[in-house]
């Protein structure tokens, strides 16, 4: 039997190192691929552009895929699944709110426009809120990763302009939402907002003590939860005429 196909949507490649451990655990049971996107410097890019490129990638496939995305990648994946449900078998979102403006980058832009602080100071402060770590090397590297995202990767808006995106609701495909208990980006009321649109069979899980990048520190647990969800997703019904081979004959003694 062929392995289920997972496509990890990655619109901020600089932060892929934080997704990698979960993807590696999942690859033990599934065929995991990464769909990475990075536009040229100063190039205008919209959600519609990303959707069109992703659609072109998935349309030649013989079967729909399980989409996974963190943060803004999860937001864009949700909008894609709503628009092209035939291409998506299930959707898993990590650190995603129904309020589409709730991303770490939008919090940075708000701080940058209102606080009389340097960019470096704001990124250092933001890093401590997003990703608590006792590792001095991680604390040193993480602000620079965020800076690289802001300079050359997909975010919504800028200090002087905010690009609005429709708020989210669960698409028609099976949906899993994993959010952190202590995530200051996706607040504690996100469960109430998601529950208004989640369907029977969908799941919302809150990771204890988890912040915005909880999946890095809790990689094994997160991968197990995603794997359990994907394994419960039913196979699509094939609309065709039945034949005698679709039935099992009873053996006669």
Give a description of the structure.
The chain has 253 residues and is of the alpha/beta class. The protein has a domain at 5-104 and 165-232: 3-Layer(aba) Sandwich (Rossmann fold). It has nine helices and six strands. The chain has helices spanning 16-26, 47-58, 72-83, 104-114, 119-130, 136-152, 190-195, 214-217, 219-232; strands spanning 5-10, 31-36, 65-70, 88-94, 175-180, 203-207. The protein has a six-stranded parallel β-sheet, sandwiched between helices. It is globular and about 55 Å long. The relative contact order is 0.16. Residues 158-162 and 246-253 have low confidence and may be disordered.
Topology of helices and strands:
Blueprint: E1 5-10, H1 16-26, E2 31-36, H2 47-58, E3 65-70, H3 72-83, E4 88-94, H4 104-114, H5 119-130, H6 136-152, E5 175-180, H7 190-195, E6 203-207, H8 214-217, H9 219-232
Parallel strand pairs: 1-2, 1-3, 3-4, 4-5, 5-6
Helix pairs in contact: 1-9, 4-5, 5-6
Features:
about 250 residues, alpha/beta, Rossmann fold, 6-stranded parallel beta sheet, 6 strands, about 40% helix
> Topology as H/E string?
EHEHEHEHHHEHEHH
CATH topology annotation of the domain at 5-104 and 165-232: Rossmann fold
Distance between the termini: 31 Å
Mean pLDDT: 86
- What structural class results from the helix and strand content? alpha/beta
Number of strands: 6
> Tell me, what is the CATH class of the domain at 5-104 and 165-232?
Alpha Beta
Largest sheet: 6 strands, parallel
So, the CATH homologous superfamily of the domain at 5-104 and 165-232? Alpha/Beta hydrolase fold, catalytic domain
Radius of gyration: 20 Å
Q: Label the CATH architecture of the domain at 5-104 and 165-232.
A: 3-Layer(aba) Sandwich
Helix share bin: 25-40%
Low-pLDDT segments: 158-162, 246-253
Classify the beta-strand content into a percent band. Answer: 5-15%
Tally of helical runs:
9
Gross geometry: globular
Q: Looking across the biggest beta sheet, what order are the strands in?
A: 2-1-3-4-5-6
């Amino acid at each position: 039997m062929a392995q289920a196909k997972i496509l990890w949507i990655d619109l901020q490649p600089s932060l892929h190192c934080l997704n990698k451990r979960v993807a590696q655990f999942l690859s033990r049971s599934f065929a995991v691929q990464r769909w990475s996107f990075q536009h040229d410097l100063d190039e205008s890019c919209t959600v519609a552009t990303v959707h069109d490129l992703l659609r072109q990638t998935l349309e030649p496939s013989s079967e729909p895929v399980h989409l996974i995305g963190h943060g803004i990648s999860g937001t864009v994946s949700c909008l894609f699944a709503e628009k092209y449900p035939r291409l998506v078998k299930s959707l898993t979102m990590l650190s995603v709110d129904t309020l589409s403006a709730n991303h770490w980058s939008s919090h940075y832009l708000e701080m940058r426009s209102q606080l009389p602080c340097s960019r470096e100071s704001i990124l250092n402060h933001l890093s401590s809120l997003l990703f608590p770590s006792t590792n001095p090397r991680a604390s040193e590297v993480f602000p620079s990763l965020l800076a690289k995202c802001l300079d050359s990767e997909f975010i919504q808006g800028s200090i002087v302009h905010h690009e609005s995106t429709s708020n989210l609701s669960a698409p028609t495909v099976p949906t899993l939402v994993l959010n952190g208990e202590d995530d200051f980006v996706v607040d504690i009321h996100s469960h109430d907002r998601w529950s208004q649109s989640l369907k029977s069979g969908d799941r919302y899980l809150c990771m204890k003590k988890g912040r915005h990048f909880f999946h890095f520190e809790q990689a094994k647990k997160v991968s197990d939860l995603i794997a359990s969800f994907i394994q419960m997703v039913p196979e699509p019904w094939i609309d065709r005429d039945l034949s005698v081979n679709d039935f099992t004959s009873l053996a006669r003694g």
